[in-house]
Structures are given as structure tokens and as C-alpha cells.
Amino acid sequence: MEFRVRAPELKGRGWLNTGGKALTLADLRGKILILDFWTFCCINCLHVLDELRPLEEKYGDALVVIGVHSPKFEHERDPVALAAAVERYGVHHPVVDDGDMHVWQQYAAKAWPTLAVVDPEGYLVASMAGEGHAEGLSRLIDELITRHEANGTLHRGDGPYVPPPAPEGLLRFPGKAIELPGGNLLVSDSARHSLVELTPDGETLVRRIGIGVRGEPFSEPQGLVLLPPSVAEVAGYDVVVADTVNHQLRGFSTATGEVTLVAGSGRPWRSSVDDHAHDALAADLSSPWDLAWFDEKVVIAMAGIHQLWWFDPIKRTVGVYAGTTVEALRDGPIPDVWMAQPSGLSVSADGVRLWIADSETSALRWVEDGVLHTAVGQGLFDFGHVDGPAAEALFQHPLGVAALPDGSVLVADTYNGAVRRFDPASNEVSTVDSGLAEPSDVLALGDGTVVVVESAAHRLTRLAPGVVKRVDGERHRTERPPSHLAPGEVTLDVIFTPAPGQKLDSQFGSPVRLVVSASPAELLLEGEGTTTELSRRIVLNPDVPKGVLQVVAQAATCDVDAEYGACHLTRQDWGVPIVIDPAGPNRLPLVLRGLDA
């Protein structure tokens, strides 16, 4: 007898993109549902939005995607901020506001992103964590369509999506800005998929580069950097653009207006890390978010895989600069460090330090002499708005940073709606301005004034000079339900089932890889490191009451029957909060992919 599980009801605080209607599973009966558990800070969640778009188009009259927004940061619980994010990222399906994490818990989600598939009769048939599932989902949807059309339980027709009114204005969710040699400002107008050149006042349009359509030539561009004149002369362009959602870099000539692809295959990164130089146009990048000229090359904040990369415009090569792809906070020599969605870069006036806004750890960090340091920040789950000594200060998901001539650093503290200042001399953090709408970048101009890219207000704002406040705000820690585990020996099992029509691909060695670490490191007595099996014995320290297990799993598959079968790589990073509990279980299961249809 087949055991079938009814999908839990979608009870949230409210709905977006439905014309004000609250949807129930009964309203959606007859459709195949994909529930996308996401939070708008999460780069992997943004990748999944892009993976789902082709499926929504292909199966439009049979498939309904429902975004379930289950927030990590305090700012993400704000319904106004959620509505802005839905517009910013072009979410064209209904979204339920799961601000209290009720739906998250009902569906037993453990990671952002998680996908759940519900059949036309309302039964849960699949769940999977992470990104890279588009091919498997397509095969599963084909099977469900065939089965439920034969049974008469599939009802084709329009879905419940109701588009919001089209926005107006010069800018829409601008991302980053730079000052051009003549004094004009160049801004990435992210939600309109273009660049905008403005006069120095930041309000008058000089020209728009791009036609405002996703993918032509930009898709949600972010970071910009001016090349040194000698490099620009050889390269043939003077600005490099982080074309974030296209996973590419583009060169822009301010003289001719020409846009040129200079790096990135257009495929999102799904590989392993090495220390070699690669042909720039053949390399797979992952959501490049910001750029800086440092150490005689363009450094890329590769937000999608928690690393820094480099790009050489003359040799036309790219490679890894810092980081291992593990999403966490660990300092040290740059090949071995951990970062979490680096999103802002700026170089000190003397060229010695590269400052980094490491958004998911709510941290300000810097590289100097090949070593990564943390100035402010405590980890993935600690954030807030607290000034004072750097060791105690807190940010909340900062996206931008600007090094000032006096050695201090301004930070676009995005989810606190503030601009903060870190002074290395005193090791203190202060608030320069607050009440801003998701500032995403800070730009120190040549005349000494400071411009803030106030992204959710769709404008550039100039800071009043000399204003510094002291803020003793709240401290927050993500209230994500922890896993209670027994001390001592625990079995960590990552469950993976290949998608329909695929098999594990062992032609290049083991098809699976598992990397385990912990924060604090003392939480793990045994079991840290990398293996080629998805099950591992670990030993938890009974003297460490709680912490976070960092788990990275990946599995390689290929198509079974095709003559030239495609290959696929499924990967997920988990930061699993752990509480040591003598009554807890001694097994931790994590689902990389589970397809049960």
C-alpha cells in the first residue's frame, strides 16, 4: 500500500502577487505546485528564482509556483521590505509571508532554499534543498502531468498570479555607483537591468546603457569598477560591470558606449575549487556582486559561492583569490578562509587594504598581505544595530563599503537602514546616518562628499558632513529552530536520490562529496573534513552546549538514456544550529534531494 502525505496548509501573515487574495491548497487543487522556501538575503535563493523562471514559462497552465518567504534577518520580517524584495527580484508568482516560520516548520525545512512539490490532488511528492534542481523538476513535472491528465485530476488554465502596477521613476532599486573622471556618476540600475549615467547632482539623466529588459545585455547588474588608464587602453574599455544574474562580467567603454562580454560563460558555477588561471570567457562564475581594483587586478566579490575571485583584463583570465566556498566566518591566509556572500568591496587610499562587506555574517572584513581579518562581525546568526567597541558592535546584512582618505571605513548597513563608520585607530563603530531605505552602496567622491545608493528609495542621497550618532540598538540572533542532538557519536546522513532519468555519475571518480566543519570548532571532537561518502560518523563535544554544524554536500549525476546525456551537479550548504541534548537523537538526516514520485 502506497503511503501518501497530505501537504500542510499555507497559513501565513499575508500574500503578495494575488490581488489581495489569501490562497489555500483547495484553491490550487488540480495544479502541480512548487513551494519555494526562500529568504531575500540568500544568494542561493535568488539563484533558484532564476532556475524556476523557465519552468514557469514552460508549464504555465499546469504549474503554479508559490514563494514561501521564511525570513532569516529581522529586517526581512517587515512586510514592506518583503514587498520591495518581490519587486526587486522580479518574482512573478504568488508569495506567502511566512514571517513566523509556521509553514517552514510544517514542511520540516532545514535550509534556504528548500523546494517542495505538491501534486494536483494535494499530496506532497518531493522535497529538495539547495539549487541546481531545474532538470530534475522538469522530469518530475512531466511525469506528474502524464499521470494526472490520465486520471483526470490535472486542471489546466490560468494561475492565481496577479501582477502589481508597473513602477515609475528614473531609478529602480539601484545597486552600486562609481564616479567617472569627468564627475558624472555611473549607477547600476539593477531592477531595470541597465546602467545609468547621471550628472554630479545624481538626479539628471545623461544616458541609459541597456534597454531595460532582463538579459539584454544585463540582468540585475551590481558592482562597477574603473580600470587604471594604462589597463583600459589595452583592454579597450574603462569600466568593468558585475552582470550579476547573468553570472558574467562586461566591459563598458564610456567613450563609445559599447558593452562587451569579458568574463563568464553564462552558466552558474557548479564545479570544484582550484588555484589555476582559467580562460575568462570559458569560466563559470556565480553572482558576481561587486568589483575593486586591488593587487594589480580586478577582484570580484563572488557572492554566489562565498569567495573572492580575480580577473585580469589584459591576459583575459580569471581565478580564485580567497575562500573555499564554505559559508561561514573564519580568518587566516586567504586560500583557506571562509566568507558568507561577500557583497561590497573598497580599497584603502594607500592601496594596502581591501575592505569587504561580508553580508551573511553581518561583518566588515579586510585583506592585507594575503591574510583575511575581521574588524566587526560574529557569525552567520548574530546581527543587530549596536555601536561601540568593534568586538561588541553589530551590523545587519551590509552590502556596501567605502574606504575614506583618513583610514576609516563607511559601511552601507543595509538591513539596519543606516550608514556606519569603523575607525581602525580607535577600533570603534559609530552610526553616521539612519532611517535610510536599504542602502546598498556608499561612494566617497573626489570633492570629499559622500553619496549613498538608497536602493529601496530608488535614489542617490548625499550625507550631511560631520554627523555621527551613538546607537545602542537591539541585538538579534536568528531564531531558526535548532536540531537537538545527543552528545558523543552521531551519524550524519545526507539523503540524495537522483532525479527521474538520471543516475550517479562516477566516470570521474566518486560522484559525491561531503565537507563538515563546526563553529565553534570545539563542537566537533571527530568528523571534520572532506570525504567521498554522504554518511559520516561525527562526535559532538558534550562540554559545548550549542553551535553550528557547517555541512556542504554535492552529488554528480548524468542522464540515463540520452545518447549524449547531460551532466548535472547538485550542491547545498547547510548551517545547522545544534543544541547538545542528552535526550536527543544520535542521527542527523539532511535531504539534498528527495524525489518520491
TrEMBL record:
The keyword Secreted does not apply. The keyword Isomerase applies. Keywords: Isomerase, Repeat. Residues 1-146 form the Thioredoxin domain. CDD domains: NHL-2_like (cd14951). NHL repeats lie at residues 395-425. InterPro entries: 6-blade_b-propeller_TolB-like, NHL2_NHL_rpt_dom, NHL_repeat, Thioredoxin-like_fold, Thioredoxin-like_sf, Thioredoxin_domain. Signal peptide: none annotated. It holds the Pfam family Thioredoxin_8. One of its GO terms (molecular function) is isomerase activity. It comes from the Bacteria. This is Thiol-disulfide isomerase/thioredoxin. It comes from Actinoplanes xinjiangensis.
